[in-house]
Each structure stands twice: as C-alpha cells, then as structure tokens.
Amino acid sequence: MHDALLSWYSAAGRHDLPWRRTRDPWAVLVSELMLQQTQVPRVLAIHQKLLAAFPTPAACAAAPVGEVVRAWAGLGYNRRAVNLHRSAVAVVERHGGHLPDTLDDLLTLPGIGPYTARAVLAFAFEKPVCPLDVNTARPLARAFGVGGQAAADALVPVDDAWRWNQALMDLGALVCTRRAPSCDVCPLADVCRWRLGGGPDPAAPAGRQSRFDGSDRQGRGRLVDALRDAPVVAGELAAVMGWADDPGRAARVAATLVADGLADRRADGTFTLPD
Length: 275
Known about the structure:
Elements: H1 2-12, H2 25-35, H3 40-53, H4 57-62, H5 65-71, H6 79-95, H7 103-107, H8 114-123, H9 134-144, H10 149-154, H11 161-175, H12 193-197, H13 216-229, H14 237-241, H15 247-259, E1 264-265, E2 271-272
Antiparallel strand pairs: 1-2
Helix pairs in contact: 1-11, 2-3, 2-8, 5-6, 9-11, 13-15
C-alpha cells in the first residue's frame, strides 16, 4: 500500500508547488493558512509576495495587523490574516520567534486548529502524523474505512511521513475526487473497500455550502477590500458593502469585523484597517 501510493506520487504528484520546496516551519504555516478554503491557483498568485513581505514570525509580528490584511488581498476569508499575525506575535513572545514542534504547543497558537498544527508537524518537521482535511480524509475513508485521527496517524510510515502526506493530499485532489473519482488510475484501487464493495460513499458531503452571493460574508469581504484602499466613513458603509437600502445590516456586519480584529472604528465613526 505504501509503495503503491508513493510510487504514484513520484510519477504524478504536484512537485512544482513552491511550499513543497521548503521545510521552514513559518513558510509552511503561512502556506497552510493561505490554502484553507482557497484554491491553489489563487494562492500561487501571491504566495511568494506575501512570504517576501513577512519572511519570519518576527517580521510579521512587528508589522501592523492592517498590513497583513492588506497583503492578504485576493485570498478571501480575511480573518486568516488576523490569525496569522496573532500567531506570529505568540511565537515571538512564547517561543523566541521559532515555531514549536509539538502538537500541544502549536494548538495554543491563535487560529491554529488540529489540521494546521498537524500540517506543520508533517510538512515542516516531517513527523508521522496525518493532517486530515477533505483531500486526505476522502481516500482514507473510501479505501480503508478510516474515519478518525488516530487511525489516520497509524497509517503514516514513520520513515517517509512527508512524502506519504503529500501523496495522500494529491491523491484526494487529483484522483479520488468528490464527484468523479478516477478509479482506473488510482494506486489504491486494488485494495479500495468502496470500489470493491460498491457501497455508499463514506466520504460523501453532508450538505451544500451556504450561498455566498448576498451573504454577510460577501459584505464583509467588500468592506475589507475597500479598507485596503482607504478609510470608509459610516455613512458609506451600506453602499460599499452592497446593501444601499439596508444601512442597519451594514452597520451590524461592520461591527463583526471590528470584533474579529479586521477593522477599527475611530471616534468619528470612520472605519479603517487595524493598526
């Protein structure tokens, strides 16, 4: 099983991705936060620029959080930029500017959950843990009936953890896809329980993602994009956020940006990126 998957990865994996050419824990963390809920092409477009701006935790921590949010333009889910800055500050204050190499310590960093913590351990420190996301969980569930973290970790080869996890990630992204898996080229086809059994897909999605058009999230994104260019006065919020006929909603949603650390509100009611 290990040989089959690793051989496939050697021949068909995405070896040209820039975050696979480093073992720097900070670079790995930045990349993983960028890749959350964002497609690879969008990340590639600004990956090197963002890392050049904030090459170390210390450089990120020393910058105003608004500068990190501004550099995050184009990626969406802007709260991740705030979490990146908060994590950098915590790394500098608690760990002397170096990311820790234990799961417990990584999980104490702001905005770092079980997947991201394990991704840093696996891709930077090459530790035998499995970062479980949709792309790694799907082939594990289909092929082996694996549905938990402990079982996924147990499958990782101790002496080749980095390649195993990259291979599993690519298998889920390129072959063992959600709607139309390419079982004819899958290296695990001969042992896949789902394919051999013909049963219901254990990796099938539970439901649809909520609609983006017209959502609060869309309005939040519009306001953050506007703040990257200039402050926005309170009277312009509704127009900027796309709800010209609903200033109450605009004010309510703008307040959530302030609560999340993505915006500041001055005494005169003007909104800006945080200092």
